[in-house]
Design goal:
The complex is a heterodimer of chains A (322) and B (323). Chain A is an alpha/beta fold and 322 residues long. Chain A has helices spanning 2-5, 8-33, 48-55, 71-77, 81-88, 123-136, 154-165, 195-200, 213-228, 257-265, 268-278, 284-307, and strands at 63-65, 112-114, 142-147, 170-176, 179-180, 183-184, 205-209, 234-239. Chain A has a single domain (2-309), classed as 3-Layer(aba) Sandwich (Rossmann fold), CATH 3.40.50. Chain A contains 12 helices and 8 strands. In chain A, α5 crosses α12. Chain A starts with a helix and ends in a 15-residue tail after the last helix. Chain B is an alpha/beta fold and 323 residues long. Chain B folds into 2 domains: 3-181, Thiamin diphosphate (ThDP)-binding fold, Pyr/PP domains (Rossmann fold, 3-Layer(aba) Sandwich), CATH 3.40.50; 195-322, Rossmann fold (3-Layer(aba) Sandwich). Helix content of chain B is 39%, strand content 20%. A 7-stranded mixed sheet of chain B has the order 3-2-4-5-7-6-12, sandwiched between helices. In chain B, α7 links the parallel β10 (203-207) and β11 (229-233). The longest helix of chain B has 15 residues, at 6-20. Chain B is globular, with a radius of gyration of 19 Å. The chains are: A alpha/beta (322), B alpha/beta (323). Chain A binds chain B through residues 63, 65, 94-100, 104, 106-108, 113-114, 116, 118, 121-133, 135, 142, 154-155, 158-159, 161-162, 165-166, 318-322, and chain B through 53, 55-56, 58, 60-74, 76, 91-92, 95-96, 99-109, 140-141, 143, 163-165, 238.
């Protein structure tokens, strides 16, 4: 049903965006292993459908907030991959002049306001963006991405309650990837689906297959429409899985290999490609060229980043206060 | 010159700020704590009901909301009321607001004001008498404002709201009834400009917040003993007007610092370190600190009075400095 609403060009663009994120993060992984990137890095490989499915429904002037695993969210919202890669590499040409790094990406020009290194940390901030949006009355919405680990933290509950109480145009997008850092969700809470919390606070919520791009897109479309119309917040839980460890370098021994293999079968990019092919919306050659172009663009971003200067020590005293 | 009570000057500032700028919202509280003057607030609340909101008791949530709204172009003032309650919002204030401008490489401005009443208040005990400004001074990215007079509270509040940075507005309930001159149409007071509250040539007595009032009373009594005390009020901790303090020290060569934060790593400790680092050659005697003793604030009145920077403790410190 969702397919009918989308024209083929739009759908191909979504595949292209997922590939850009995948290629970008795979390159980050390679650069990290080569010690070209030296900071703390968390990759969302395998979770691209959530970022692209959700951000694909947004306007440039909508606000997006992320967490520590947010390269994909920034790219999905339209961030420039050269400046993003340069930031992760700690270079002066990065979005944040090398002061933020992987966990603190901000790309204000495209509405990616900020990520945070603190689990749940941007949830209250998104309320504020929604509060400002509500007052501005231009139909803007705020979206915040967070993981299942945030569900056990204070800001999650305070934010859901206030959003509901004040009917704020904010969409909470939970990437439930089953693991809060190194332990399964079952070790953190008796609640199986975080959407249950949303219902407690009177927020309409749905749980979807987060590796099914069109499922995410459909649920997000509905949430955004209601939010723009002033009907208050929405909560979208996307069941997904990260195919890498919690952080780059994490041996991830806590996860069964059979579980990983199962999730690899559900790879969102492969799945969406199969769907497009089965509907004859894309050819094998086109798929190949999408991947090739993404990898090419990412190679250029890496070259740009590694050729960029390190920030000058004189820079350190700048931007402490405005 | 027009004389006003501190609470009147503060309220007048808020009224003028709300009228002048639609982006300003007051989130939580009444700005006057539990003072009997709370009723003056009600008319303003009626007039600006759409811009004055009472959130649930979720400090973390509503401080974060204010930070996010500031990032999105509004200019919120959050009233935490009791200073100790900022601990409930610490992750948002210290880890999000303070860092945002720097870690975004200058992309994200956070023009929010966190207002709080700090310090010994008469029976607040350990959990309602906190003075978190010293801890906050350890978070680069925040501005810290600490008025002590009716004129200053009005002028500094205006500057705080106009600032593009997250600003902690550190107030004290014992100041609310202090009276002083507040000229009509007074200009906002810039940050980083200390004020000599009483001139004198023998000792530089640096004090903040309500302790400025205590210091002025002490100075008046010491004058009768023939000791001329210069009371200097930094008015803002960040930015800090070290030059003004050094120029007073150049004249007096003696320093006493009186402040209500705890002694260890407190406001007085930082000021003492700065003077020692840059003005050591101007000193004729060691710097003396009159801070709150390093104990959780006790409830019982005589115990509470014992631990604070009282007039008697300040006078003793000054006397030893000139001895």
């Amino acid at each position: 049903m969702a397919v009918k609403k989308n024209n083929s060009q739009e759908l191909v663009a979504l595949l292209r965006r997922m590939w850009l994120i995948r290629a970008f993060e795979e390159k980050v992984s390679v650069l990290y292993a080569a010690r070209e990137i030296q900071g703390l890095v968390h990759l969302g490989i395998g979770q691209e459908a959530v970022a692209v499915g959700a951000c694909g429904q947004l306007r440039v002037d909508d606000y997006v907030y992320g967490g520590h695993r947010s390269h994909g969210h920034a790219i999905a919202k339209g961030a420039d991959i050269n400046r993003l890669m340069a930031e992760i590499a700690g270079r002066a040409t990065g979005y944040c002049r090398g002061k933020g790094g992987s966990m603190h990406i901000a790309a204000k020009e495209c509405g990616f306001v900020t990520a945070t290194g603190v689990v749940g940390g941007t949830m209250p901030l998104a309320l504020g963006a929604a509060f400002a949006a509500k007052e501005r009355k231009k139909g803007q919405v705020a979206v915040v991405f967070f993981g299942d680990g945030a569900g056990q933290a204070g800001p999650f509950h305070e934010s859901l309650n206030i959003a509901s109480l004040w009917k704020l145009p904010v969409i909470f997008v939970c990437e439930n990837n089953g693991y809060a850092e190194f332990t399964p969700l079952s070790a953190h809470t008796k609640i199986e689906r975080l959407a249950q919390h949303a219902k407690t606070y009177g927020i309409p919520a749905s749980t979807v297959d987060g590796n099914d791009l069109l499922a995410v897109r459909g649920a997000m479309s509905e949430a955004v429409t209601k939010c723009r119309a002033g009907q208050g917040p929405a909560f979208l839980e996307c069941l997904t899985h990260r195919l890498r460890g919690h952080y780059e370098g994490d041996p991830a021994k806590y996860r069964e290999l059979s579980q990983l293999a199962e999730w690899k079968k559900k790879d969102p990019i492969a799945r969406f490609t199969r769907l497009l092919k089965s509907r004859k919306l894309i050819s094998d050659q086109a798929v190949e060229s999408i991947e090739r172009e993404a990898r090419g663009a990412v190679e250029q971003a890496a070259e740009f980043s590694l050729a960029s200067p390190w920030p000058d020590a004189a820079e350190v005293a700048g931007q402490v206060t405005a | 010159m027009r004389e006003l009570a501190y609470y009147e000057a503060k309220f007048e500032a808020l009224e003028e700020i709300m009228a002048a700028d639609q982006r300003v919202h007051l989130i939580n509280g009444t700005f006057l704590s539990l003072s009997p003057h709370r009723h003056v607030f009600q008319n303003l609340q009626k007039k600006y009901s759409d811009r004055m909101m009472m959130p649930p008791i979720s400090e973390l949530g509503f401080c974060g909301l204010a930070i996010g709204a500031a990032m999105a172009g509004l200019r919120p003032i959050v009233d935490l009321s009791t200073g100790s309650f900022i601990f409930e919002a610490w992750p948002q204030v210290a880890n999000e607001a303070a860092n945002a401008f720097s870690m975004s490489g200058g992309q994200t401005r956070v023009p929010v004001v966190f207002h709080l009443f700090h310090g010994l208040r008469g029976g607040g005990a350990a959990q309602h008498s906190g003075s978190p400004q010293a801890m906050l001074w350890n978070c680069p990215g925040l501005e810290i404002v600490i008025p002590s007079s009716p004129r200053d509270v009005k002028g500094l509040l205006k500057t705080a709201v106009a600032s593009d940075n997250p600003t902690i507005f550190v107030d004290h309930t014992r100041l609310l009834d202090v009276r002083g001159d507040v000229p009509e149409n007074d200009k906002p007071i810039p940050f980083g400009v200390a004020d000599v509250k009483r001139p004198g040539g023998d000792v530089t007595l640096i004090a903040t917040s309500y302790t400025v009032q205590v210091a002025l009373a002490a100075a008046a009594k010491l004058a009768q003993e023939g000791i001329e005390v210069e009371v200097v009020d930094p008015r803002t901790l960040v930015p800090f007007d070290l030059a003004a303090i050094l120029s007073s020290v150049e004249k007096t060569h003696r320093v006493v610092i009186a402040d209500e934060t705890h002694q260890s790593c407190g406001v007085a400790a930082e000021i003492a370190a700065r003077i020692a680092e840059t003005g050591f050659d101007k000193l004729k005697t060691r710097i003396r600190r009159v801070s709150t003793l390093d104990v959780p604030v006790p409830y019982s009145p005589p115990l509470e009075a014992h631990i604070g920077p009282s007039e008697a403790r300040i006078m003793d410190a000054v006397r030893t400095a000139v001895a």
